[in-house]
Amino acid sequence: MRGKTLAVAFFEASTRTRISFTTAASRLGADTMALQAESSSLKKGESLLDTVRTLEAMRPDGIVIRHSSSGAPHFVAERLEIPVINAGDGTHEHPTQALLDALTIRGRKGKLEGWNVTILGDVLHSRVARSNIHLLGKFGARITLCGPAMWVPPELELLAPNIHRTARIEEAVDGADVIIVLRVQAERIHEPALSAEEYILGYQLTAKRLRLARPDALVLHPGPMIRGLEIDPSVADGPQCAVLEQVTNGLAVRMALLYHLIAGAPADAPHPAKDRSKCC
What is the pTM of this model? Predict the structure, then answer.
């Protein structure tokens, strides 16, 4: 991507995803121009469309966008001539997180097909959950959604085949091959929620509960983890947890996306990490 420029427009706070995309662009030799919502003209009343069109007028070769409104990246993509990558939109989706989770599962377990996958926590407000449901559902995963009833509504069962929900964590993790622990997203929760003590008692992934899963079950978390609330520290630091591998794989996935969407790679091009001459 030497000679290319990537616009990174985050209208919502982010650390991991923003740094991952900017590092991916840098590793591929691209320049970046960054917009942060708190210092942008949006604070002065400018519309989203005017903001991204202003960025486009600076002639970037692609744009990565995170926005608090569901559907914002799609809205932008329909109106710009450059590639638009969704880095998370509202409670809708987070596609690159699902891709890096899939890469982590395949790396640890050798394949994606047919696993028993438990998604645990605040599913309703989680874009990570939705993207994982769509992706893993395509590979025949048997998906169990578990969390407080208000965070796992019945309509979520319509997102993929072979999916069901339960409010009992012991039932959800029993026999699981993969457990995706979700962050309790206080910034997106508007209705009264459980107290921390009630959540820990009912839904924290502890070592005792993990023992109900398969002996080689994989534990994932999109981060940042709230140790002692969503996940017990002994699990977070245990051999079955792959959180740091997820971060590493996120960089690889985002490099690959930029390579294919912006660098003009042929459709059958290998992953850029396999050919250092193309990415360094």
Answer: 0.90
